[in-house]
Specification:
393 residues; alpha+beta; six-stranded antiparallel β-barrel; 11 helices; 24% strand; binds guanosine-5'-diphosphate; binds magnesium ion
């Protein structure tokens, strides 16, 4: 072993990537990202530090370096601390830093025909648990994929709607953007547009160079073209993660999923399932039999059948919910896309969804919103009249 990637080392030593980066910072070692490589000397230092830490706090190896230093039994019992304080307390405080982790929400963007749909289909086919016999998989605008690193939620809205779901009404829906670029076509207008959207939303990007199975595939050209946009792939010394894949053969897809999980881990995504509910509409439609159906991404809190929801100037009571695989569910926590039956009108994609205690509260929120809208309209009308007055007849 000479050089080793940071995330590989973290995995081998059983510590999380953030902790590994903290340790490197502590040692003054510079790196671009978790996939940067570090020297053997540094690896040895890290191992030493971890061994020392394990000695001073044998009960809780997963603590952060700081917590370990502060652990009580590091030194022989000080005179002013006669009570034998147990270690578990330190361990609890280290974990109680915030809400629990949640799964990453990923959007796939790129130029037409570069393979967005094919890539999503491949992931869905290989990573979504088969449904019970007889069920028809409906397209609901999002799905949950199971990977060895946990759940990843993919937004699956066609074409240009992907842009509205990345950043809707000023808030991000997606945590990570996958930019798909065909290896035989390289950067095209909609690729640049997708990159611009991800940058504007400040969402981390991962580039998937697709169609590498084609004989005319030229992944190196894609990387050079990206560099022209100041997006420098890691192999060229930059910090852009670029993964060669084929949606046709499945090559590289496992790596892509792994990079998504790594990026998510670094983003430290959290949401409180016990907090106030908030969500966003992914898509809505009218079903001939069921009526209005809307897919909502739960961002914070938990939804339950029977809850009242407010969207724009409309509201609804959840009559039934299904998960993205079509199974009936009674409740749904953060980073879960759910299809909801109970809205009276089709809500628009990107609309924020809030909950209300009861129907009365829902109506009050809507009345308030309607009033604000009328006030704004009236003010606009007055400005127009004043302008006409000034211009004269
Ligand atoms: P989208 O417009 O970005 O959603 O692209 P599609 O997924 O519809 O793919 C466009 C075309 O490229 C289709 O004919 C796909 O079969 C083909 N395609 C997609 N991915 C691959 C791939 O990895 N290898 C090859 N050879 N063809 C692919
Ligand atoms: Mg498509």
């Amino acid at each position: 072993m000479s050089k080793v990637r940071i995330y590989t080392l973290a995995k081998d030593l059983g510590v999380d990537n953030n902790k590994m980066l903290e340790m490197l910072d502590g040692l003054g070692v510079s790196y671009k990202s978790v996939s940067s490589t570090i020297e053997e000397d540094t690896v040895e230092l890290i191992k030493q530090l971890l061994a020392e830490e394990a000695e001073s706090a044998p009960a809780a190896p997963a603590q952060t370096a700081d917590a370990a230093q502060a652990a009580p039994q590091a030194a022989p019992a000080p005179a002013d601390a006669p009570t034998p304080s147990p270690a578990p307390e330190a361990a609890t405080t280290a974990e109680d830093t915030g809400a629990p982790h949640r799964a990453p929400v990923v959007t796939i963007m790129g130029h037409v025909d570069h393979g967005k749909t094919s890539l999503l289909d491949y992931i869905r086919k290989t990573r979504v648990a088969a449904k019970e016999a007889g069920g028809i998989t409906q397209h609901v605008g999002a799905f949950e994929a199971q990977t060895s690193k946990g759940k990843i939620v993919f937004i699956d809205t066609p074409g240009h709607e992907a842009f509205t779901t990345i950043r809707a009404r000023g808030a991000n829906v997606a945590d990570i953007a996958i930019i798909v670029i065909a290896a035989d076509d390289s950067l095209m207008p909609q690729t640049r547009e997708a990159i611009a959207h991800a940058q504007a939303a400040k969402v981390p990007m991962i580039v998937a160079i697709n169609k590498v199975d084609l004989p005319q595939a030229d992944p190196e050209r894609v990387k050079t073209d990206l560099t022209q946009l100041n997006l420098v792939p890691e192999e060229y010394g930059g910090d852009l993660v670029v993964v060669p894949v084929s949606a046709k053969t499945g090559e590289g897809v496992e790596d892509l999923l792994e990079y998504i999980s790594l990026t998510a881990e670094l983003e430290d995504l959290r949401a409180d399932p016990k907090g106030t509910f908030s969500g966003v509409v992914i898509e809505g439609r009218v079903d001939k039999q069921a009526g209005v159906l809307a897919t909502v991404m739960v961002q914070e809190g938990t939804l339950h059948v029977g809850d009242f929801l407010v969207v724009g100037e409309g509201y609804g009571k959840i009559k039934a919910m299904t998960d993205s695989a079509g199974g009936r569910i009674k409740e749904a926590g953060p980073s879960t896309p759910v299809q909801i039956l109970g809205f009276s009108e089709v809500p628009a994609s990107g609309e924020q969804v809030q909950s209300a205690k009861n129907e009365h509260a829902a109506r009050e929120v809507i009345a308030g919103r309607a009033q604000t809208r009328r006030d704004t309209e009236a003010a606009r009308e007055r400005r127009k009249l004043t302008l006409e007055d000034m211009m004269g007849p």
